[in-house]
Amino acid sequence: MSNTEKILVLDFGSQYTQLIARRVREQKVYSEILPYNVTIDRIKEFAPKGIVLSGGPSSVYEKNAPLPDKEIFNLGIPVLGICYGMQLMARMLGGKVAKAAKREYGRAELMIDDDTDLLRGIAAKGKGQRAKGRKPVTYHSSLVTVVWMSHGDKIVKQPKGFNPIAHTDNSPVAAMADKSRKFYALQFHPEVAHTENGARILKNFVFNVCRCKPKWTMQSFIETTTKEIRERVGKDRVVCAISGGVDSAVTAVLINRAIGKRLTCIFVDNGVLRLGEATKVEGMLKKHFHMNIICVDASKRFLGKLKGVTDPEKKRKIIGNEFIRVFEEEAMTIKGVKYLAQGTLYPDVIESTSFKGPSATIKSHHNVGGLLKDMKLRLIEPLRELFKDEVRVLGRELGMPDEIISRHPFPGPGLAIRIIDEVTPQRADILRKADAIVLEEIKKAGLYNEIWQAFAVLLPIKTVGVMGDERTYENVVAVRAVKSVDGMTADWAKLPYDVLGIISNRIINEVKGINRVVFDISSKPPGTIEWE
Ligand code: XMP
User: Fold this and answer.
1) Residue of 151, 167, 189, 366 with catalytic role
2) Atom 9 of ligand 1 has which residue's CA nearest to it?
3) N or C: which end of the chain has fewer CB within 10 A?
4) Is 330 a catalytic residue?
5) pLDDT in tens, the chain (532 residues)
């Protein structure tokens, strides 16, 4: 994107690298992460106003320690090194790093010696003592704040031109600066929430040191991106697969804004969707955005392929492959299609280019990659610079209803991996009804937005029950509701008993084929969110 107010983050493998970019973007300044060994030409082309060197698991005196191109220090722009980034700055600029006598991990009290620019306004006067024999640069040595440390090495000699700007009991140089060259380095992590005023430090770097202007807003993103899409696509046509999820819907709405009816969305009903899903998504896109949308009812085809299949991975593969076929057949019917739009997000992009090595960019369940080759389509990924929460903000700015924006994630293979054992049309119908009741009651109780995912699972066991005077012998439904930040770990949601009671009553009374409801109280790990 064309924007001159940018901060580059070079990734040395820290688990917190993404957070640095997010904290910068929260200041309305665009930030991007590139691998540490990116060429100097690429950096010049990116033209950042400042560079942040992330932390990382390595030690600078390891044999193959990751080091950036030394030229980054000759670009005449500010550099901020964090943790490993600090140590490599020290080493590359002529200082000395050694193993610390004591590893410093976790909370530490930072005593600020110079609060004039980077560390301005981050600490209140506290009880902290100045390290013995050290002269403060200014007279605020009793300014104390809590920071988060995680390092085993320390600076024993600062490079020429540097002065300490903060210390802890353990690290005489917990932060240092060469103000004339605008080089700064921190031993702790300002990007994590445990560092009390970390966001302010990064804000200071962005505004006080790099002199950026806050221009990165969703409105500006919408303007530049629609313009770019319009220029790139010209008079050609674009096709986009809609899944019912947030990412593909926002992608479609954004592209629609740029090129209108030259975008065609394809929504495939695979027979294992939630109740009313196809109508809901189609309705939203047509009603609010007047889009071209083709809804394909391929449920018979999918369910036919799933007949007799019990292995979860086989179910996934069948659904993924069949999806590509159906999508391709439909896309082929549209004349003049040159582009395929996809809702790839920034974390997927970083995954595939980062320090940690390449991984597949296209998620297996959205695997329409084959189309690119067969149909000679070019890829458009307008969300590839955004994090998930930014996509939600974007969707809201684009006027999309909250009902779509705050939806729980739904797996590509849909209800097929929530019907344990074989998927049959009858079972899919039963589960759809039970699932709708779970969601309806959770929404009614005002709990939907606190929960990451809530759903029903159909178990392949029969239990005895009694309804009226009759003995029943029917299936069990398990209710699953989890809280999570990213789906990687999750805890079961403590749903109130009365809500669970209503869900259970309604399912047993309203869904024929179910006579027992249980509640899943496993967390992840060791459990997973889905049952298959
Ligand atoms: P698990 O079950 O692995 O789920 O704890 C983590 C998150 O991933 C979703 N999930 C899938 N999504 N295709 C998808 O698109 C799949 O095959 C798949 N399996 C799990 C799950 O719903 C949860 O959000």
Assistant:
1) 189
2) 411
3) N
4) no
5) 557 899 999 999 988 898 899 899 999 999 999 999 999 999 999 999 999 999 998 999 888 899 999 999 999 999 999 999 999 999 999 999 988 877 777 889 999 999 999 999 987 665 444 444 444 444 445 689 999 988 788 899 999 999 999 999 888 899 999 999 999 999 999 998 889 899 999 999 999 999 999 998 999 899 999 999 999 999 999 999 998 888 999 999 999 999 999 999 999 999 999 999 888 888 888 888 889 999 999 999 999 999 999 999 999 999 999 998 999 899 989 999 999 999 988 877 766 665 554 333 333 444 455 566 677 789 999 998 888 888 999 999 999 988 889 889 899 899 999 999 999 999 999 999 999 999 999 999 999 999 999 999 999 999 999 988 889 999 999 999 999 877 878 899 999 999 999 999 999 999 999 999 999 999 988 999 999 9
Instruction: Please state whether the predicted TM-score (pTM) of the whole model is above 0.85.
Output: no
Ligand 1 center to 81 CA (angstroms): 36
Give the number of C-alpha atoms closer than 13 A to the C-alpha of residue 163, restricted to the C-beta side: 14
Cα 201 from Cα 187, distance rounded (Å): 13
A 10 A CB-CB count for 288 gives 14
Q: Is 433 in the pocket of ligand 1 (CB under 6 A)?
A: no
| 366 is annotated as an active-site residue | no
Q: Which atom of ligand 1 is nearest to the CA of 527?
A: 5
Give yes or no for a contact between 359 and 257, defined as CB atoms under 8 angstroms apart. Answer: no
Q: Which amino acid is at 412?
A: G
Q: Which residue, by CA, sits nearest to atom 11 of ligand 1? A: 411
Q: Ligand 1 centroid vs 408 CA: distance in angstroms?
A: 12
Going along the chain from its start, the domains and CATH numbers come out as 6-209 (3.40.50.880), 218-405 (3.40.50.620), 424-519 (3.30.300.10)
DSSP result, 112-139: ES--SSTTTT--EE-S--PPTT---SSS
For ligand 1, say whether the CB of 292 is within 6 Å of any of its atoms.
Answer: no
